Amino acid sequence: MNQEIISEIHLTLYSDIKYLDIVQAVSDSFSNMAGFNDEDLYWVGLSVREAVTNAILHGNKNDSTVPVDLSFRQEEHRLVVTVTDHGEGIDESMLPDPLDPEHLLKPGGRGIFLVKSFMDNVFFNTPSGGWNRISDGETY
Known about the structure:
Distance between the termini: 16 Å
Structural class: alpha+beta
Number of strands: 5
Strand content: 25-35%
Low-confidence stretches: none
Radius of gyration: 15 Å
């Protein structure tokens, strides 16, 4: 289903968590501009921040010379957010269940779970080129 693009923005940042506040500000601003209410704006922002954190730490192995690409696209009735890193990709079936009692007290391992919990659709794309893309078609 092709929808008309109303607004779009692209960011490229290097793999350093010091950029997460900028990512959060852009996410909040773009979501606000797209008409999201405060609660949805919060969950979109949290999901984007988690996806970018995973791209930096896991996809790009915290290598500050490797970029993360982030895009926000507002279509008629949805917001599409895409985060692309240059890692080898993930096999979702190999991710531990963060709700398993043996994982409940671990300090990490919930990023993808949170993203999938708060966004309408989440897709992982790992082409043969060896990079990973997480995308959401959030409907509002």
